[in-house]
């Protein structure tokens, strides 16, 4: 018995075919990563369009910039302190916050990011009346505030309210 004979031409043709497929396999992860990156970018842009508007930009129906809230307006509590957009609601419908004062801020109070917050929180606390189940909070401008040199004091309720504080 002799060993099977190998056809060198057949071997070369098979190798050319395999080498021709190799770049396609290498491109798949690159294409998948590119598509995933584009989806993430689209998601971030969509999120910014809905939730993170710059001063002066038009907000979706029912939303207001936190520093544009006026005394007596009710809204859903923002997720953090500082300058945010809020969902306004009637004070007779479910809400977790109600503005009770708007304080003007002088240019000197616009120092660092914590400076206006602590000072205005102290001012808000002094202006607030005791409300059971409520805590005093404040929205203050961040850098690049678009001319909003004011702070909004509000009550943050521990439970959802369906009536104004007044």
Structure characterization notes:
This is Septum formation-related domain-containing protein. Keywords: Membrane, Transmembrane, Transmembrane helix. The chain crosses the membrane at residues 30-51. The protein has 166 residues and is α+β, with helices and mostly antiparallel strands. The chain folds into 2 domains: 1-52; 63-161, no CATH class. The chain is built from 2 helices and 6 strands; from the N terminus they run H-E-E-E-E-H-E-E. It has helices at 8-51, 115-127; strands spanning 63-65, 74-75, 85-89, 95-104, 134-139, 150-161. The longest helix is centred in the first third of the chain and has 44 residues, at 8-51. It is rod-shaped and about 100 Å long.
Shape: rod-shaped
Instruction: Report low-confidence residues grouped into runs of 5 or more.
Output: none
Strand pairing plus helix content: what structural class? alpha+beta
The termini sit apart by 105 Å
Q: Please give the order of strands in the largest beta sheet.
A: 1-3-2-4-6-5
User: How many structurally independent domains?
Assistant: 2
| Largest sheet data | 6 strands, antiparallel
| Beta-strand content estimate | 15-25%
Number of strands: 6
**Whole-number radius of gyration?**
30 Å
How many helices in DSSP terms? Answer: 2
Oligomer: single chain
Which H/E pattern describes the elements? HEEEEHEE
- Please state the average pLDDT score: 76
Helix percent band:
25-40%
């Amino acid at each position: 018995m002799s060993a099977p004979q190998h056809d060198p031409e057949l071997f070369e043709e098979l190798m050319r075919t395999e080498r021709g497929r190799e770049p396609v396999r290498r491109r798949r992860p690159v294409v998948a990563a590119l598509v995933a990156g584009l989806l993430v970018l689209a998601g971030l842009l969509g999120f910014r369009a809905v939730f993170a508007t710059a001063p002066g930009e038009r907000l979706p129906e029912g939303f207001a910039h936190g520093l544009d809230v006026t005394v007596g307006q009710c809204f859903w509590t923002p997720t953090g302190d500082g300058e945010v957009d809020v969902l306004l609601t009637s004070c007779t419908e479910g809400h977790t916050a109600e503005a009770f004062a708007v304080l003007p801020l002088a240019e000197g109070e616009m120092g660092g990011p914590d400076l206006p917050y602590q000072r205005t929180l102290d001012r808000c606390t002094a202006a607030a009346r005791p409300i059971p189940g409520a805590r005093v909070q404040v929205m203050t401008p961040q850098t690049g505030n678009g001319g909003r040199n004011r702070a909004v004091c509000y009550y943050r309720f521990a439970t959802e309210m369906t009536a104004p504080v007044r």
